[in-house]
Amino acid sequence: MPNAALAVMPTDSQFHDEVRRGERFTFGSNWASFLETLDDARIAQAEQSLKEMLRVDSLQGQRFLDAGSGSGLFSLAAKRLGANVVSFDFDPQSVACTAELRRRYFPDSASWSVQQASVLDRDFLKSLGQFDIVYSWGVLHHTGHMWDALANVEPLIKPGGRLFIALYNDEGFKSRLWTRIKKLYCSGLAGRWLVKALCIPLFAAVAVLKCLTTGRNYFADYKRRRGMSVYHDWIDWIGGYPFEVAKPEEILEFYRDRGFTLDNLRTTNRLGCNQFVFVRLEAPDLRLQGKS
C-alpha cells in the first residue's frame, strides 16, 4: 500500500495515452511552472478567495476535498485555514505539484493526503467518505464527462456541507470555437506553437489596453483575485482540453434536483467560469448515479 501522504492510483498509463492521442492537455506541466512563481502573497490571496466565497473566517477541523488539485495552491490554502485536506488529481504532474506544496509547508501533517485518481472513478470516490466542503475549481469541465463528474461529487458532501465549483460559461458559438482551438493545441508540437503564437500576443495586447484605458494594473488585479498567474492561466485557457460548458441555470437546476440550495454565486457574461457554492439540505444518495 502506498504511503498515505502520497497514494498513487494506476491511472498513469491512461493519462499518458490520452495525451499522446491529443485528447488531453498536460495541466500538471503548466502547474509545475506556476509553482516557480508562488509566493506568500499568492497563498494569502487564495486563502482570501476561499473565505469570501465560502463566507467563513476559518475551516478549522473541517474535512476539505480538493477534487482536481492542480498546483495544490487551494489545498494549501484550505490547510492553512485549519482544514483536514484530501487532494487528488488525474494528472501525475499535478499530483507531484500538490505533494511538493505539502512537503514545503506541512511535511509532517497526517491531516493532508495527496492521491492520484480520477473524479470519474466512483469506487475511489466511495472510499473517501464524506466532507464538509468539496472544492473543484475549473476541473469537472475538463474530464470529458462533465455531467457524470458533477453527479459523482454530489454524494461526497455531508448534510449541511458545501460544494464549491467553477465551470466554464456556455457562450454558444464562441465556446465551440474555443473547443477547436484547444483541440488543435493538444494535437502536437506544431498545433501547440501555432495556437501560442496567435493567442498569447493577442491576450497580452488586450491586457495592456485594459491597463491603459482603466488606469489599473490588470496583472496585479488578476493576482489579487485568486492568487493565480495570468500567463499560466492563459496557457491553461488555450490548452485546456477536454472542454465542456454549461449555462448557470443548468447547474442550478442540476443541484437543486439533488437536494442542494445555492449559497453563493458569481457569474460571468463571457468565456470565463461561473462560480457556485451549494449547501446540501438533505442526506445524499450514496449510489453515485450519473445524469439520467
Name a few traits of the molecule.
alpha/beta; Rossmann fold; 2 domains; eight-stranded mixed β-sheet; disordered C terminus
Q: In CATH terms, what is the architecture of the largest domain?
A: 3-Layer(aba) Sandwich
Return the string of H and E elements.
Answer: EHHHEHEHEHEHEHHHHHEE
Number of strands: 8
Low-pLDDT runs:
1-10, 287-292
How do the strands and helices of this protein lay out in sequence?
Blueprint lengths: L5 E3 L3 H9 L6 H8 L5 H15 L8 E5 L5 H8 L3 E6 L2 H14 L6 E5 L5 H5 L4 E7 L8 H8 L3 E12 L4 H13 L3 H26 L3 H9 L3 H10 L8 H9 L3 E7 L6 E8 L12
Parallel strand pairs: 1-4, 2-3, 2-5, 3-4, 5-6
Antiparallel strand pairs: 6-8, 7-8
Describe the structure.
This protein is α/β, with parallel strands linked by helices and 292 residues long. The chain has two domains: 6-170 and 244-280, Rossmann fold; 173-239, no CATH class. It contains twelve helices and eight strands. It has an eight-stranded mixed sheet, with helices on both faces. Helix 7 links the parallel strand 5 and strand 6 (157-168). The radius of gyration is 18 Å and the shape is globular. Residues 1-10 and 287-292 have low confidence and may be disordered.
